[in-house]
Give the backbone structure.
Amino acid sequence: MTGKPDQNQAKAGRITISVDAMGGDAGPAVVVAGIAMSAEKNPDIGFILHGPAEQLKPLVARKRTLEGRVEIRDVRDVVTMEDKPSQVMRNGKGTSMWSALDAIKNGEAAGAVSCGNTGALMALSMLRLRKLPGVNRPAIAILWPSLNPQGFNVMLDVGADVKADAEDLLQYALMGTSYVRNSMDIARPRVGLLNVGTEEHKGSAVLKEAHALIAGHAAQANYEFTGFVEGSDIPGDTADVIVTDGFTGNVAIKTGEGTARVMRTALREAFEYSFLSRIAAVLAMTSLKRLSKRMDPRRVNGGVFLGLNGTVVKSHGGADAMGVSAAVKLAFRLAQHGFAEKLAARVASAGAHTQDDTAPRGMRAATEKD
Amino acid sequence: MTGKPDQNQAKAGRITISVDAMGGDAGPAVVVAGIAMSAEKNPDIGFILHGPAEQLKPLVARKRTLEGRVEIRDVRDVVTMEDKPSQVMRNGKGTSMWSALDAIKNGEAAGAVSCGNTGALMALSMLRLRKLPGVNRPAIAILWPSLNPQGFNVMLDVGADVKADAEDLLQYALMGTSYVRNSMDIARPRVGLLNVGTEEHKGSAVLKEAHALIAGHAAQANYEFTGFVEGSDIPGDTADVIVTDGFTGNVAIKTGEGTARVMRTALREAFEYSFLSRIAAVLAMTSLKRLSKRMDPRRVNGGVFLGLNGTVVKSHGGADAMGVSAAVKLAFRLAQHGFAEKLAARVASAGAHTQDDTAPRGMRAATEKD
C-alpha cells in the first residue's frame, strides 16, 4: 500500500479513514456520532463508512458537519462478537469489517477503525493486509495511563496472539518504539520487558533470551532498555514501552481496567453516602472532573495492530462517541506521520542484521521518525 | 506436624504463631508493634519471635501487652531481599527465617509469618516443611479486594512458580477452595480459571485441559466451576477463587496494586488542588476514610503458602504494624480451623481418584470444612 495513501491524500486534500460502522455494542448511531465529533475538530479528515446503506444514510444526513465528507459503502453482513475468527475468514467477505479493511488494501484509505470482534478483526487484517516482511506475529499495542511525563505507556502485545518467543518479543520492542515515536514526541523511548521481578535471574528461559536480544538491539534501534519491569511499573514511570506476550498483556490490561472501575464505583458511592459527602462532592466537582478526565479510558481508546501492511485501530466494543472519536484521531495521527511505512522500514532494517535482507527496495529511505 | 499444634494449644491454652522478626523493609520494631496489636485484640494468641535477642528484647519489653506471651529465639543471621533462594537453601540455617519455619516443623507453633524475601521463604518452606503428598507445585494464594459479598477473592498462584500444567491448576483449584472455606464462610465456592476470554475455544492447550479437569472435579470437591474468567473479573463478583499460573498471577496482582496506587495518588492531588477542594476533603472525610479502609491493601496483607505440611503466611515486605497484625490474624485463623490438616485430606482425597491412594492413614476423617 506504500504510496497510495499519499495519492489519496493529495487528491482529496485530506486523509481518509475507513470506518466499520457495525459490530460495536452500541450500534452504528454511536459510530456516526463519533466520526462527526472528529470531523468537527479536524478539517483534514474524510471517511469511508461501511455498513447497510439504509441504516447509515439517515444517520449521516442528520450530522451537518459530515456533509460531503463521508462515502458510504453498502455492505449487508456484520461480524458479531460471537463469531469465531476462523468462520469470519472463510465467510466474512460481505461484512462491513472486511470491506473496511479492503479500503486500506486498495489504497483508498490511510487507516481503518473498527469497534468489532478483536479476534476476527486481527484474523481478517492478516488475511487481507498481510504481515510485514520479517514479522512473525503481529501485535496489538494499547496506550495505558501512567505517571510518565507524556501520561501514557504503550504496552504490547495485549492479545493478538497468546504466545510469543524471544524473537517475537524483540519485534514487539522495535514496533512499540516506532509507535511511540510516531504517536508521542519521544526520540529515544525506554523499553521494559514484563516479568515477575526485576532481577536478571528471574523468569522463564524465553524471557532471559528476549532480555539479551532486546539489550543487543538498543543502540542500533535507538531505544533505552530498562531491563525487566514488573506489573506495578505498567502505570508508573519506568518505561515508555512495555513488552510482553499477548496472554500476559491481555490479563494485565483487563485487571488494571477492572481495578480502576471498581475504585471509581466505590468513590461514587462514598460521595453519595451522606448529606455532608454530597455537599463535598459539589465543592470538589472541578477537581473530581479533572481526576476523572485524567483516568478516563475513553481518552486513550484504541488498540493499534502493529506488523501489518497498513494501520488498523481496534476501538473498544463498548466505546461511546467520544471513544470512537479518540480511535479515529489515533488512526489519523498515525496516517499523517506515515507510520505504516516507517514501521515497515524499521522492521526490515532490524531483520537485515539477523537474517537475509528482505526489505523491499526504497523502504530504507524513511529516517525522520521511524 | 498433625496433632502437635493441638498439644501445644492445649498446653498453653492458646495458639502459638511463629514470627520472623527480620527481613522486612521496616525492621523488627514494626514487626513487634504488629504482634502487639494482635495480642491486644486476641487473648488466645502467643508468639515465638525469631531474630537477634539484643534487638528484640528491648522492643518486646516496651509493649506491656506482650508480657509473658512472647518467647524469643536468638538467631543472628537475616535473609535479605537480595539473597537468592538457592543460596539461602544452602547457607540459611542460622537465619531468623529458617528458625521461624522450624518452629512449625517441630510442632511448637501452628503457623509462621514472615515479611522477608518471598522466593527464599518459599524455597526454605519446601525444604523444611516438605510438600504435601500428591502436591507437585505449592502455590501462593492472596486475598484480593472485590465486589463479592465477602469483599475478597482468593487468587492463586501469584508467584510460587512461574509455570503450571493442567494438573497443577486443578490442585490450585482444590487448595484455593479449601482455603476459602477455612478463611471465609462459603460452603460451595465459585472457581474461575483465568484466561484471555470466557469462550471455551480461547487460550492455550494447557488451559483447555485444565478447564476439563477442574470441571470434572467440581461435584466431588463441592465447588461451582464458572469456567474461564478474564482479568476484569478479578476485582468483580464472578468467582471466589481465581486459578492461574504464578507468572500471570504475579503480573496481575502487581498491575492491580499499581493501578490502585496511582489512582489513590491522583485522588489525593485532586483534593489538594484548590481551596474549595480542600474544604470538600474535610466535609467528605468520613466517606473518604470509609473508602480508604475498604481499599486498604494492609487489611488483607498476607499471601498464604498452600500445599506444604504447615501454614506459612508471607506478609508484604513493606508492611507496617497494621499489615503485620493482619498477616498474624490470618495465620491464627487458619490454625484455629485446623486448615493445614484439612487441606492435606482434601488433596489426598482428590488424588485418590486419579492416582494410587497416597493419603496417610486417618487423614480422610476431616470433613467439617475441608
In short: The mean pLDDT of chain A is 86.
